[in-house]
């Protein structure tokens, strides 16, 4: 099995092994996933991943790619590709413990072909355009999708830093140095707060950190749009009055490959994009996609690692909840350390070369831990 070959390897080594095995798969069929039909014309192994040429349709309508949706055949480059998919009868088992000490089990199966199709279908839903003038025969190369490394990290990390167990006022908890960090977590809360039974006291505040190696984007390209996606597995809000919007912000951890306690205070207060509590999907069935605004686009670097974080609205705006005893607000999702599946955090960036006018070939890089 591929997963056995990955044991003891770093992120780069894992990517090369998975790419080698995926490139041997037969992608000659037409595939339909989540309303997207995909025809793959060519698969080639490249350094750290695979490259696919493909067309896509939504229903009977062909989708265009690139800034203006004029590209007919997309060039998808998948870096550090996935090989595992969820399966209740799967023989690959992931066991993890959540914030409440509850042990959870996830079952998967090894299916590199299906994992590739699932990754492509979601990204195509984000970047494919309907009702555009597709240029027949055009081949694209202007979209990049990246995922954080799993442990042991090579270039990027995801995880969380938080304050826990010591009850204090909201202001003090928010301004504290933090108490813990988890750079290698699988499925846990990436933002949230909990109150105690003592009036006006809180004992938990969580902030997420998500880094993406975007150095593969050409340095001179313009960032046209970007989407930050999380695979939500649960959400909870038992407060009566609280700012429960989830904000994407900047993060500046001490290193790109680890998260430490001090990183709790390394999250920004400029909004890069938001999603309301009602629209955050915690059903463990689909991605929650957050379009980045101009500030978020400006934070994407084509020369190294782009750094993002998550914090809930009351934390972001420094507005204390209306205190109630033993209440909580949490946003839960998978992190890259579930390793090798199709539900990792992801950043999809659409970019174009100067003067390309939306007709430059369109490049899609995908990477899954």
Walk me through what this model shows:
The protein has helices at 2-6, 11-22, 112-127, 170-175, 294-298, 313-317, and strands spanning 30-33, 36-46, 49-58, 61-62, 71-79, 84-86, 92-97, 103-110, 135-139, 143-146, 158-168, 180-182, 187-195, 202-213, 222-237, 246-250, 273-275, 287-291, 305-312, 328-334, 346-352, 363-366. It has 369 residues and is mainly beta. Strands 10, 11, 12, 13, 14, 15, 16, 17, 18, 19, 20 and 21 form a 12-stranded antiparallel β-sheet that branches. Strands 1, 2, 3, 4, 5, 9 and 22 form a 7-stranded mixed β-sheet that branches. A 3-stranded antiparallel β-sheet has the order 6-8-7. It is globular. Residues 357-369 have low confidence and may be disordered.
The biggest sheet, with number of strands, parallel, antiparallel or mixed sense and barrel status, is: 12 strands, antiparallel
Total of helices: 6
Please write the string of helix (H) and strand (E) elements: HHEEEEEEEEHEEEHEEEEEEEHEHEEE
| Strand coverage percent | 35-45%
On the 0-100 scale, what is the average pLDDT?
A: 90
Estimated radius of gyration: 21 Å
Low-confidence stretches: 357-369
Structural class: mainly beta
Which descriptor suits the 3D outline?
globular
Oligomer: single chain
Number of domains: 2
Give the number of DSSP strands.
22
Helix content class: 10-25%
Measured distance between first and last alpha carbons: 17 Å
């Amino acid at each position: 099995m591929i997963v056995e070959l990955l044991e003891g390897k770093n992120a780069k080594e894992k990517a090369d092994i998975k790419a080698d095995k995926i490139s041997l798969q037969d992608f000659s069929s037409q595939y339909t996933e989540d309303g997207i039909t995909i025809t793959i014309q060519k698969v080639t192994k490249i350094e750290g991943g695979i490259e696919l040429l493909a067309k896509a349709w939504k229903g009977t309508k062909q989708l265009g790619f690139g800034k203006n949706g004029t590209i007919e055949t997309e060039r998808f480059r998948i870096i550090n590709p996935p090989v595992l998919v969820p399966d209740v009868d799967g023989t690959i088992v992931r066991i993890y413990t959540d914030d409440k000490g509850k042990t959870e089990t996830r079952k998967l199966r090894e299916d590199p072909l299906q994992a590739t199709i699932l990754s492509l279908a979601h990204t195509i839903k984000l970047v494919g355009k309907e009702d555009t003038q597709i240029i027949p025969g055009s081949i694209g190369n202007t979209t990049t999708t990246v995922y954080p490394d799993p442990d042991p990290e090579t270039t990027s990390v995801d995880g969380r830093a938080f304050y826990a167990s010591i009850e204090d006022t909201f202001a003090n908890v928010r301004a504290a140095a933090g108490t813990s960090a988890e750079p290698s977590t699988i499925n846990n809360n990436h933002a949230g707060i909990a109150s105690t039974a003592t009036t006006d006291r809180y004992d938990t505040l969580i902030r997420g950190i998500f880094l993406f190696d975007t150095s593969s984007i050409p340095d001179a390209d313009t960032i046209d749009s970007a989407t930050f996606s999380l695979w939500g597995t649960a959400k909870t809000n038992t407060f009566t009055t609280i700012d429960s919007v989830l904000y994407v912000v900047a993060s500046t951890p001490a290193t790109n490959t680890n998260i430490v306690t001090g990183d709790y205070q390394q999250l920004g207060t400029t909004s890069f994009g938001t999603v309301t509590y009602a629209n955050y999907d915690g059903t463990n069935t689909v991605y929650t996609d957050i379009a980045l605004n101009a500030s978020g686009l400006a934070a994407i670097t084509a020369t190294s690692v782009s750094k993002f974080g998550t914090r809930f609205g009351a934390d972001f705006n420094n507005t204390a909840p209306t205190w109630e005893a033993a209440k909580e607000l949490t946003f839960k999702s998978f992190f890259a350390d579930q390793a090798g599946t199709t539900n990792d955090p992801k950043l999809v960036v659409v970019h174009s070369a100067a003067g390309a006018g939306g007709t430059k070939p369109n490049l899609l890089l995908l990477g899954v831990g």
